[in-house]
Amino acid sequence: MENPESAPAGEPRSLPQPWNIIFPPATRLVVWSILAAILYLLRSFFLLVFLTFVFAYIQSSGIRYIQPYLKNRALSVVAVTALFLGTLTAVGIFILPNVQRQAESFVRQFPVYLGKVDSLIQDLGNRYPALYKAVPELEKKMRAVQTGKVRENERALPEAEGKIDPTRSPTAAFLQDLAGFGAQTQGYQNIDQALDII
User: Fold this and answer.
1) Beta carbons within 8 Å of 194's beta carbon, 6+ residues apart
2) Which of 74, 128, 129, 171 could pair with 117 in a Cys bridge, judged by C-beta atoms 3.0 to 4.6 Å apart?
3) For 149-171, what is each residue's pLDDT tens digit?
4) pTM of the entire structure?
5) Is the CB of residue 132 less than 8 Å from the CB of residue 139?
6) Residue 2 half-sphere exposure, CB side, CA atoms within 13 Å?
7) SS3 183
């Protein structure tokens, strides 16, 4: 058996048995674990880090591709960067107006969408009465219908003028709770309670 101390100068010493088998995979596991821990700690920056690597890879690949044609590396970097930024700008110029139109259309039609979702929730509530316990706004609406404060033809939750009253709309109340503003309800506890009942 060869003595590790007698290895020629300049060559790495090998580890003794069984460490020469255990150490390389363990090293890889530790390095990947550290990388995963760093990514977990920086999870709020994950998109930024990910896009940095993606753009760096695109830039590097583009430079390698045009290196045979442009021998000057600085010129290659400038050319690839200009092409990349030009592509992003062109996509932005052609896509952003469509996105803006769609966003404006969505905002205009939001009360209609909210009304449709409210009526679907009310239909589900009629089929599954336990849902009324989970959604306080539905329970209030149902009590108002049962006591006669609201006529049967007004059972639909959306307002007639297209304005949604958040106190009468379960969807609007849910969105307010989700966004973290507006009157807080015990909706989550009620949903948990309804799931326990089911």
Assistant:
1) 130, 131, 133, 134
2) 171
3) 554 444 444 444 445 555 567 77
4) 0.44
5) yes
6) 7
7) coil
DSSP 55-81: HHHHHHHHHHHHTTT---HHHHHHHHH
d(CA 125, CA 142): 9
CA dist 191 and 136 (Å) reads: 10
Name the stretches of the chain with pLDDT < 70: 1-12, 137-138, 141-168, 177-198
Residues whose CB is less than 8 angstroms from the CB of residue 73 and which lie 6 or more positions away in sequence, other chains included: 63, 67
Q: By C-alpha distance, which of 138, 134, 187 is closest to 146?
A: 138
CB atoms near residue 118 (< 10 Å): 23
Alpha-helical (H) ranges within the chain are 19-41, 46-66, 73-127, 130-134, 136-147, 170-179, 187-197
The number of C-alpha atoms within 13 Å of 4 and in the hemisphere containing its C-beta is 8
Q: Which two tokens stand for residue 11?
A: 């060559």
